[in-house]
Amino acid sequence: MWLCRFLLQLFYRIVYPGDWLIKWLAAPGIYLEDLFVTPTSRSLGVGSALLSYIGRHARAIGAGRIDWAVLKWNVGARKFYTETCGGEELAEWLGVRVEGEGKIERLAEL
Q1: Considering 12, 31, 53, 81, which one is annotated as catalytic?
Q2: pLDDT tens-place string over residues 69-84
Q3: What is the residue extent of each domain of the chain?
Q4: Which helix (H) or strand (E) holds 29?
Q5: The domain at 2-108 falls in which architecture?
Q6: Is the Cα dihedral 60, 25, 34, 87 positive or negative?
Q7: Are 91 and 47 in contact (CB under 8 A)?
Q8: Model-level pTM?
Q9: Residue 51 CB coordination number (10 Å)
Q10: Contacts of 54 (CB under 8 A, 6+ apart)
Q11: Is 12 considered catalytic here?
Q12: Which of 49, 47, 40 is nearest to 70 (CA)?
């Protein structure tokens, strides 16, 4: 498990080097960009260990919340996040993406 914690710590620092402030909570927060556990490592406690590490870090910095996204079709992950981790799926937020030929250029020219 120490390797999992090390890798997550390294990944977290590379992808998200600073904590962000949730203005309406007046507290820091964490956005977890990606969490992937290989299929052969699932059901071995790896995901729990990774998220537990994030939870301990959140507690240490006095975070108001932790956010992440999951694909709608990923029923196993959704069940783990809600039933095991105590997360709740948000109905009021939608993902927005600019991608594809000409779309970034269009955005740049607004």
Answers
A1: 81
A2: 899 999 999 999 999 9
A3: 2-108
A4: strand 27-31
A5: 3-Layer(aba) Sandwich (3.40)
A6: positive
A7: no
A8: 0.70
A9: 20
A10: 8, 12, 30, 32, 66
A11: no
A12: 47
